[in-house]
Amino acid sequence: MPYTAATVQLLSPEGTLVQRDANEQYIPYVDKLSDDALYEFHRHMVVMRRFDIEAANLQRQGQLALWIPSNGQEAAQVGSALAAKPQDHLFPAYREHVIARIRGVDPVTILAMLRGHSHGGWDPKEHNNFHLYTLVIGSQTLHATGYAMGINLDGMVGTGDPDKDTAVMVYFGDGSTSQGDVSEAMVFAASYQTPQVFFLQNNHWAISVPVSRQSRTPLYLRGEGFGIPSVQIDGNDVLASFAVTKANLDAARSGHGPSFIEALTYRMGAHTTSDDPSKYRHDSELEFWGQRDPITRFENFLRGRGASDTVFADIAAEGDDLAADIRKRITELEVPANSTMFDHVYSDPHPVMDAQRQALADFETSFEEGQ
């Protein structure tokens, strides 16, 4: 489902600013950005794409059980994440790697989960309110809405204090819009006027199912159907992602209720490394979206503003350094004891877990006794 007449685009595929009446309300957000802030957008996108490539290589070399690529979706993620304030709570799905890093999650923590070394958890309080990856499709929208309801009840919205007023943003994909959880989350968000932004990354494929089979209308209209103000943006335009998200988060913190953003982007790689997209996608589609690459677009924009080759060389070097660092650290991880699989299943000690842990220990001991 390509761009529509309603799509907000601030930066053209060629990297030039788009001047039209529909953009006027968002231009002030962009005008306030310094050169350093713009370079920060580019740095996050480039460095984490390099991380993404390295992680895929690690999986192919047997160092990870699985990898979940985010190649092509960097602008949607970086722009929206940098639009949030530290007190805002972000609820991801499972592909938001650059957002995790922006919020302070060590990338090796994500890789350790996909290597089978951990259950994948981190404490959101210690990572700038970035909540846990969620593999149960769409369920994070319910978690986010419930949390946003609690923020409302705690009086943390519409106080006029910019350091206190808090919003929630939840990320989900086009495939999850077919799950009942997402609809239920929007029902409660609209009913309770939660301080919340639903951020849909429409990457056009729910594994092998195209979005056109799931919805006969643009997905941002789903939000409108629940009475939630909604907007569709060019998700490969980091400026649009930043400005539109910031405007909607500001409104949420001020007590104006939930909103819905559909970011039109594209999953350039496979759904995961266990998927073969060549079985269901056409080369013409890849070519179309390749010409709208978010990183190339933004680099053209920055060069047009006078950015030097040194800026891009330094950023590329940082990406290479991160790739080398995560490769070294992930291969040095010690294999955890088998018994750790029973840890943290429940918040308190549980007799069933204790029995299963002992049963595994006895089973392993039986091999030693038979030698």
Give an account of the 3D structure:
The chain has 371 residues and is an alpha/beta fold. It folds into two domains: 21-336, 3-Layer(aba) Sandwich (Rossmann fold), CATH 3.40.50.970; 339-369. It is 46% helix and 8% strand. The protein is built from 14 helices and seven strands. It has a five-stranded parallel beta sheet, sandwiched between helices. It has a two-stranded antiparallel sheet with strand order 4-5. A hairpin with a 2-residue loop joins strand 4 (205-206) and strand 5. Helix 2 crosses helix 3, helix 3 packs parallel to helix 10 (238-253) and helix 6 (139-153) runs parallel beside helix 7 (180-192). The chain is globular, with a radius of gyration of 22 Å. The N and C termini lie far apart (62 Å). The model has no long low-confidence stretch (mean pLDDT 95).
Tags for this entry?
single chain, 371 residues, alpha/beta, Rossmann fold, 2 domains, 5-stranded parallel beta sheet, two-stranded antiparallel sheet
Care to give the gist of this entry?
With 371 residues, the chain is an alpha/beta fold. The protein has 14 helices and 7 strands. Helix content is 46%, strand content 8%.
Blueprint (SSEs and pairs):
Elements: H1 27-31, H2 35-60, H3 74-83, E1 89-91, H4 97-102, H5 107-115, H6 139-153, E2 168-173, H7 180-192, E3 196-202, E4 205-206, E5 209-210, H8 211-214, H9 220-225, E6 230-234, H10 238-253, E7 259-264, H11 283-290, H12 294-304, H13 309-331, H14 351-369
Parallel strand pairs: 1-2, 2-3, 3-7, 6-7
Antiparallel strand pairs: 4-5
Helix pairs in contact: 2-3, 2-12, 2-13, 3-10, 6-7
